[in-house]
Every structure is written in structure tokens, then in C-alpha cells.
Amino acid sequence: xxxxxxxxxxxxxxxxxxxxxxxxxxxxxxxxxxxxxxxxxxxxxxxxxxxxxxxxxxxxxxxxxxxxxxxxxxxxxxxxxxxxxxxxxxxxxxxxxxxxxxxxxxxxxxxxxxxxxxxxxxxxxxxxxxxxxxxxxxxxxxxxxxxxxxxxxxxxxxxxxxxxxxxxxxxxxxxxxxxxxxxxxxxxxxxxxxxxxxxxxxxxxxxxxxxxxxxxxxxxxxxxxxxxxxxxxxxxxxxxxxxxxxxxxxxxxxxxx
Length: 257
What we know:
The protein is an all-alpha fold. It has helices spanning about 5-30, 40-50, 50-85, 85-100, 110-115, 120-145, 150-155, 160-200, 205-215, 215-245. It has one domain (about 60-245): Orthogonal Bundle (MetI-like fold). The protein is built from 10 helices and no strands. The radius of gyration is 22 Å and the shape is flat. Belongs to the binding-protein-dependent transport system permease family.
């Protein structure tokens, strides 16, 4: 008999297995053409048969995603600190940042292609543009919600604004920061793949566009699964670091999402 903890650990795998079986049964039972909706068995075969190009393009997508994400972390953290600490900066920049974030990032891809040409750079910049805003908002929220009473006590003890930021503000914002990283890394994959489908000759996005043009839907779905798997791995990696570095902010293991 499985314990509750074992069942919790197995639950994601059981759900995935159930969905795969259901997917296979629907495709087989209704005789769905492979060029419309391939069964998991066909996707698996396509992945095995073309694992080398899939690996090459997946490596490119992972590189562009991580590069854009790294830039987003630096820019989002710095802007988040500025917005969270200064009401003046908040009033000046926040409306512009919200308006910028409301623009679909795919609209920037043609502009980036004109500026930098087709290739890696537009994918990196698109990943950055789509992923820095959650980091900025969460860091700013963590700093802006610091209790005023705590600030007053620290100032009465002689602490400067820098001391408050370094010893209280930033640690207080760490749970918000790690929560934003888990969201931003998934968005970074979206940005890089969008750019690859429009303006690149490498990457999973390009592979999927090339496969769809020849109606090779099994390869398209293999690319989708690879992107999803990379996103899950990176999400879990940041969740691991969040749990280790900000465990004090969570009362129980189940609260560390």
C-alpha cells in the first residue's frame, strides 16, 4: 500500500501515463491520420529516428533561452530594486513598463531581424523581452511590502538605507525573486521558440516549422515534447534552489511550489 508521500511523488508520472494511454487510444480507436494528430507511439518513433537533429536544435534553443533569461535576471533584478525602493522611480517607470509588457513580443521579432539579422541574437533578445517583467514585478513587490515598522526600528538603531536593503530588504524579497524565476524561465522558452519560428535557421522552433511544412506532424509533436521537457527541468531546478535557499519562508514542504 502506497503512503501519502509516495503517492504525491508518483502522482505526476501517473497523470502523464494516463494521458499518454488516453492519447494513444483516441488516435488508434478513431483512426486519426498521422498527418493530423500522431499517436504517442508515432511521436516516439520520430524522436528515435531523428534524435541527432532534435538534439542539435534543442541545444541551440536551450542556449538562446538561458542567454536571454540571464540578461532578464540582471535587468529585472536591478530595475526591480529601483522600482521597489523609490516611489519616484515607480511613478516614472511603472506605467511605461506595463505598457511595454502589454505589446505582443512576436511584434518585436521583425524589428530585431532588421537590426541584428536572422539567427541567434533575435532569439536571445526575444527571450529576454518576454521574461524580465515577472522578475521586475516580484522583486519590486518584495521590497515595497517591507513592513514600515521594521524599517523604523532599523533606522532607530542607526541602520542606513543600504543596510536595510542588504540585511532585510533583499532577503525579504528572495521568495518573490525565486517565484519569478520559475515563471520567467518558462516564458523565456516561449520567446526563443517564437523567434526561431520566424527568424532563424536553428532551434526547435525552426525544426517544427520545417517539419510542419512537409506535414511531418510526428516530428512537430516531438519538438513540442522536447520544449516542454526542458521547461519542466528548468522549473524544477529553480524550485530546488528556492527550497534550499528560502526554506525559512515556507512552513511546510507542500508550500514550496
